[in-house]
């Protein structure tokens, strides 16, 4: 039923104008990739769309979807393409629907502490805009300087601060979205409580563009924290660090509680100078505290350092100014870059109940070892969510894909045995879909498919994603 | 297709045992009512079921639903019957499915800060059980000493503390539920982040028993606040109190920020002695602060009192011990009882963006005035959610129903004009369903119906609820 590329572009241009429709080879190439396999080069997943559409208004999104429904053409919604699970890859070709030009912050309502913004707004731009009014939008995915709100909503993106503040979904009060049929829906609104009908808002968040195309969101805000404090605690053993995470989260409500295990410390140590004490540690915790008074945070940091010392930790490093805060955070933030510097890698995004954190690291090491790969673990310890990088090293494509898949499969089996899930914040997308049955039992999976069919009976929205 | 009462009871007894099936007149009477129209007596909504089933185990719930599906018999799930929107009324007869005997707290996992509990657990019992381990489950509906977790989940119940801590949904990580088909599903789990498939957990919360029967939940916990402080601020004008709510919520993150407007102060003043300063106020705010140190909360209370005084408020009353805290809270908590003492009443549960709070009170007064009724407003100011009681006085049934419906309709029109919603925490249920189109636009409402059909194709689960 699908139209050939040229016919498709012609039909779409008639609907949304020439400037919004791209079908040159460069554009199709660019919108056929994402960040799923970092540094993957020619072997990385690549699925060029037939045509790229970049609407500027909601009615144009609706027109594209009406057209796609009539012609039964697959539509793959896309933000900035920073996703790590292939959610934005047009695996069945068709239309890549980029939301990047829906980039307006529609309103900042300081009295009600809400902002309404379109899907294409870059997350960090949104944060800066509200911060200029003393307000705070906490979700902070690593890619926040380039990723877009729509992608954050599609994947329920998070980041370090979700430890205290929750993931993107915790901040979403309402959505504007376009159904596969082209109809525009509005869920929720500016109200802090709302039980008038089903909560479609929370169903759409994290649905990875398979149920509807989110075009705008109404987001809750809070006040900027008056004081912050960042510190690093070096531990001589992984288990001690993991146990400390439980205590710190239960007693100190940290804004962030991040971990680097030994291999991650080693990787980042090749990229930037690290103090010897950190370099010699089995695990580092990076803690960020938010509060009203710097003095109170310093008192709290002393308590934390003393408790950690009692558990064998080395001397705490506490940032005494903003520059030092950035330096400490760089140790955590640059791990991804450090791993990329070592090798192409595939990142698993496993999450487990927090008390199983050390078990997760051990399971990752064991799975990698069995297949002659290296695993590097780091991430959001306070949420039990680790990014487990499996390194390609100098393997050829066939060996890499075989070993990577085998190690990843065993890792996710271990995650399921720990009552964890295959993804905490990256989404199932295209690359993890075969593992979904490890996280969702058969009747629940069947029900999810019924929900998909209710929203998108012809299956044109982001086909090939989530479901095995 | 539905069986006659006796056949139905016989069939169900064969499935779940004699003790779980009641069809005597008293039981049918008891399970045919709820708290929708308080003090309503013979005119209050009453819909006796054909039979009452009180399963003790999930497999029994599944057996009842398989049977009901096969026979196409309506099933109305029910907790403690404390609902205020008729959600638990078996308006089409059939089976009243009481979850009260699924009353086990399955586990308290202090390391992961989660509790798993069955639908029939009384909310306050759950709170006491986790508090015994130093843990805190914040949602605090007014009926918490008698309402059950399953009802809280079905309605996304809240209470004063949702101002800081969010509604029930903010604390739900996973659900066990039974579909209309009798299949048991498991959503989410113990993980603090989870984007493995659609978030059915958050869709089911607030779905009022129309999508599935929730049998158990995995709930997130936090640590008990080390210090609390309760205070009352008396304001000479409604607008000043409403403006103070915005400032207090933006700057002081109160655990609760409740309001009583003049009519509510007057009502409670007839039930219990109030200091003359409170009695003479146009509005009272009751603030509860949570923190680590009592001293800091006292400093904060002084700031609050000073800011309120600058806005014309009278002297603040600050509770200096737990007994005094209870006394201050009684002024707020006893409003419902005080209104009941005056008259039968119908409670609307409107929610608006917080900055429209004073407008909501004025709209309620105007709508009541136009129909010769009295409105009494109080509730969760920090969330923009007021309970608006329309009083019957000495009207006969016909006049009361006509005036109540007319005033309520106009009130909800005004709420919609303020970008508010018809219900913040009580649910749409049976009594508000005609107003749902004021809160949900036609394509979104049609989509909700598609979701309902995907879960419950024969429409046996809580028919007659939510949808107009």
Give a structural overview:
2 copies of one chain form a homodimer. With 468 residues, chain A is of the alpha+beta class. The first copy, chain A, has 16 helices and 19 strands. An 8-stranded antiparallel beta sheet of chain A has the order 2-17-19-18-14-15-13-16, with helices on both faces. A 5-stranded antiparallel beta sheet of chain A has the order 6-7-11-9-10. The first copy, chain A, has a 4-stranded mixed beta sheet with strand order 1-3-5-4, with helices on one face. In chain A, a hairpin with a 5-residue loop joins strand 9 and strand 10 (184-188). The longest helix of chain A is centred in the last third of the chain and has 21 residues, at 397-417. Chain A is globular and about 70 Å long. The two termini of chain A are 24 Å apart. The mean pLDDT of chain A is 96. Chains A and B meet through strand 10, helix 7, strand 12, helix 8 and helix 16 of A and strand 10, helix 7, strand 12, helix 8 and helix 16 of B.
Strand content of chain A: 15-25%
- Based on DSSP secondary structure assignment, what is the total number of beta strands of chain A? 19
| Biggest interface found | A-B, 80 and 80 residues
Radius of gyration of chain A, Cα only, in angstroms? 22 Å
Fraction of residues in H or I helices of chain A = 25-40%
Note poorly predicted spans of chain A. none
What would you call the quaternary organization? homodimer
| Secondary structural class of chain A | alpha+beta
Distance between the termini of chain A: 24 Å
The shape of chain A is globular
Mean pLDDT over all positions of chain A: 96
What is the number of helical segments of chain A per DSSP (H or I, 4+ residues)?
Answer: 16
The strand order across the widest sheet of chain A is: 2-17-19-18-14-15-13-16
Largest sheet of chain A: 8 strands, antiparallel
